[in-house]
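Lecture notes, part 5. Sequence design as translation. It can be helpful to think of inverse folding as translation between two languages: the language of shapes and the language of residues. The source text, in structure tokens, appears below.
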């Protein structure tokens, strides 16, 4: 190696170091020594490359706020939700508000009160099911855990005052919007010392608002730490939906087959028709998804199936849903429902076997049978009726 070689080699290393320096922190260490009568310069380059993986800001979070603080917390949920929504939105996350969620559930469960819906959405399975419907990546369940008041009386320099420490506790957890798995959770505490005397006092509502605002800030800070640590990660892929056919019938409810021949002669058959209930509401994990009889789209696997209809007792089962599944739900009438059924079928009790009817009477009888169908019942008639004999129930 010639004497110029170390300079050329060092220049090349320096060039490499400079080029690395454009995207990395480099460090060059050199040492010179004699070997075989020649001066050798040895250089070592250490490059530290830092890669920053940006967290996507396009995730959508559905926020559910519930009250566990008793009567005192009931009036504070709206404020807490607003504070939480504002702070989480500042983190670059899209938020589906509680108002949107309740409106969605109200549309699927007409007649439910706001209290009923709040209780329903407090359940993780219902919250996850609704988040899937609305396309949320994550579910954020926030609970107002409680308020505390610790009072201490101070009597100094002739002035009596009460030092009141007001404390609010808020708990949150983040669930995967697809699987419902818990990804992050924390409880935060916000406190304020309020001094009250005969001459001055502070409104409690203002104190509680301040506590909730502070708690919301701490919740957002806790959530940001989880995001920065990669605790949430990318949302799970949406589970494949399967088709399930659901039919309904009514337990122990039959009706005699009433027929009219070509001569308008009435005959009451010994055969009985089974009765089905129409337009029953189908709920999956607390969320209405369709009606029965009919076909619904549902996530494969275990879920709670609930079928409800006015005049009947609710039907509930845990079902392992698979594609192409056929389920028959047998509904049991309530007392009020049975009374309504007796009124709807009272006309049959007045019929006489073998009676000769006028055309007008036939029309009335067929109209009464049609009204029965319009009241939400379906009579499951048989096939194979002759052309000269027809059932008043449409066959």
């Amino acid at each position: 190696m010639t004497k110029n070689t170390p300079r050329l080699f060092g220049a090349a290393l320096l060039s490499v170091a400079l080029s690395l320096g454009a995207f990395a922190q480099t460090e060059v260490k050199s040492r010179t020594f004699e070997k075989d009568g020649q001066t050798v310069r040895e250089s070592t380059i250490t490059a530290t490359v830092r890669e920053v993986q940006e967290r996507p800001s396009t995730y959508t979070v559905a926020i559910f706020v519930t009250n566990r603080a008793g009567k005192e917390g009931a009036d504070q949920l709206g404020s807490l939700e607003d504070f939480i929504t504002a702070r989480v939105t500042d983190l670059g996350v899209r938020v589906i508000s509680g108002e949107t969620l309740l409106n969605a559930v109200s549309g699927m469960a007409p007649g439910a009160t706001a209290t009923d819906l709040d209780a329903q959405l407090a359940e993780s399975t219902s919250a996850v099911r609704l988040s899937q419907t609305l396309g949320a990546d994550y579910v954020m369940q926030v609970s107002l855990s409680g308020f505390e008041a610790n009072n201490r009386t101070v009597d100094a320099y002739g002035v009596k005052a009460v030092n009141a420490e007001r404390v609010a506790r808020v708990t949150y957890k983040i669930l995967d919007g697809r699987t419902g798995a818990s990804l992050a959770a924390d409880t935060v505490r916000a406190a304020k010392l309020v001094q009250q005397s005969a001459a001055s006092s502070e409104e409690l509502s203002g104190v509680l608002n301040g506590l909730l605002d502070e708690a919301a800030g701490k919740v957002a800070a806790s959530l940001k730490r989880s995001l920065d640590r990669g605790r949430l990660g990318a949302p799970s892929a949406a589970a494949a939906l399967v088709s399930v056919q659901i039919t309904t019938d009514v337990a122990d409810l039959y009706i005699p087959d009433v027929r009219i021949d070509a001569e308008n002669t009435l005959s009451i058959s010994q055969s009985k028709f089974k009765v089905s209930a129409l337009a029953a509401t189908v709920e999956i994990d607390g969320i209405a998804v369709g009606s029965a009889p009919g076909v619904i789209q549902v996530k494969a696997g275990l879920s709670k199936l609930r079928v409800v209809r006015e005049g009947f007792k609710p039907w509930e089962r845990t079902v392992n849903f698979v594609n192409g599944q056929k389920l028959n739900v047998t509904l049991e009438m309530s007392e009020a429902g049975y009374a309504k059924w007796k009124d709807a079928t009272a006309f049959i009790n007045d019929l006489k076997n073998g009676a000769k009817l006028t055309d007008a009477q036939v029309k009335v009888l067929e109209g009464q049978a049609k009204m029965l169908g319009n009241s939400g019942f379906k009579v499951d008639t048989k096939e194979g009726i002759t052309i000269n004999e027809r059932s008043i129930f449409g066959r």
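The translated text above is only one of many valid answers, since several sequences can fold into similar shapes. The chain is about 30% helix and 40% strand.
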